[in-house]
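[recover] target loaded
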């Protein structure tokens, strides 16, 4: 989202994707993550796999004080916001890469021309 794909569409001369589809996909993936519920400490799973592969692991005590996200605290706020985003113009990119590979950071919303196909 907000990755300046509109510029690429202009260069190619065809629509590559739609903002509403992107927002719907983000909403679907977040919904799936929320439905998974509590996560275990990712460090423990990684340490277990490395240990099984013969590596010796010593975890920092602070890393073991993992507080899992319940993933439900702000669910309604986030989902409602995504629903609103689907009806609005695409978000401007935080950064974009031009055809020569240079990374640009727009200074203000007016710095970025908005094009529609």
């Amino acid at each position: 989202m907000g990755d300046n794909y509109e510029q690429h569409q202009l260069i190619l001369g065809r629509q590559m994707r739609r903002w509403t589809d992107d927002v719907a996909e983000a909403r679907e993936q977040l919904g799936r993550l929320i439905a998974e519920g509590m996560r275990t400490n990712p460090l423990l799973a990684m340490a277990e796999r490395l240990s099984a592969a013969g590596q010796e692991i010593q975890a920092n005590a602070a890393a073991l004080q993992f507080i899992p996200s319940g993933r439900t605290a702000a669910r309604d706020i986030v989902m409602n916001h995504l629903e609103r985003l689907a009806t609005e113009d695409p978000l401007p990119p935080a950064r974009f890469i031009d055809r020569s590979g240079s990374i640009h950071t727009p200074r203000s919303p007016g710095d970025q021309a908005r094009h529609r196909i």
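[recover] notes: Confidence is low (pLDDT under 50) at residues 113-117.
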